[in-house]
């Protein structure tokens, strides 16, 4: 299933696409988005925070209708349970079931069907 925790790690690998222009993939044509409860694990979220591309996460969450995260990644004492619960919701509970992700550079389309993204490229699209 496409959750934002996974999406925050994905980029386009089509020929000619390079980081940072190929990240983050942009959601389009999302026809089915579900919110499913998941167990809250504060320790996991605290360890995950430094690994996140925060700006990309915030912008993607906004694109999907969630504006709960602050623009800047909280640091130190600002990382309280309230922030962690908002982060948990965005990362772990929002599921994109149907739609597509597009590369912001080459506009390659990665369809999402039944929660599974098709990240395969045709042979002529593979970067070298």
From TrEMBL:
GO molecular function, one term: protein heterodimerization activity
Signal sequence annotation: none
Residue ranges of coiled coil: none
Gene Ontology BP term (one): rRNA (guanine-N7)-methylation
Quaternary structure note: Interacts with TRM9.
Top-level taxon: Eukaryota
Name the UniProt record assigns to this protein: Trm112
Family: Belongs to the TRM112 family.
């Amino acid at each position: 299933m496409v959750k934002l925790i996974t999406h925050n790690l994905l980029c386009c690998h089509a020929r000619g696409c390079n980081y940072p222009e190929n990240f983050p993939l942009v959601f389009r044509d999302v026809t089915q988005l579900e919110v499913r409860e998941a167990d809250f694990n504060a320790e996991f979220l605290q360890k995950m925070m430094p690994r996140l591309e925060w700006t990309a996460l915030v912008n993607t969450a906004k694109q999907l209708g969630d504006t709960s995260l602050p623009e800047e990644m909280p640091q130190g004492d600002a990382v309280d349970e309230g922030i962690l619960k908002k982060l948990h919701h965005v990362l772990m509970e929002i599921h994109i079931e149907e739609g597509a992700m597009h590369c912001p550079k080459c506009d390659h389309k990665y369809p999402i069907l039944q929660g599974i993204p098709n990240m395969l490229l045709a042979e002529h699209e593979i970067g070298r």
